[in-house]
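Students often ask why inverse folding is considered easier than folding. One informal answer: many sequences map to the same fold, so there is more than one right answer. In these notes we will look at a single instance of the problem. The structure comes first.
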């Protein structure tokens, strides 16, 4: 019920994208960037991917595994 309320506040295309990724990645659709690596596939990200995730320019996905990335200060 709470998830439905939160999802209603988010653009439908983003929710659909999240759900598609979650289905294909066993529920792990959103992952952190740590030391320049995607914590989903553990492969190195490009400087542009890291920069975009850090500055919240848009919804950023890993070019290797497709998961949604977020940046958090280490």
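Output (designed amino acids):
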């Amino acid at each position: 019920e709470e998830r439905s309320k939160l999802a209603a506040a988010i653009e439908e295309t983003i929710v659909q994208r999240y759900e598609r990724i979650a289905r294909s990645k066993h529920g792990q659709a959103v992952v952190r960037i740590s030391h320049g690596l995607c914590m989903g596939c553990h492969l190195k990200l490009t400087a542009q991917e890291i920069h975009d995730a850090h500055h919240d320019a848009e919804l950023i996905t890993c070019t290797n595994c497709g998961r949604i990335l977020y940046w958090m200060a280490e």
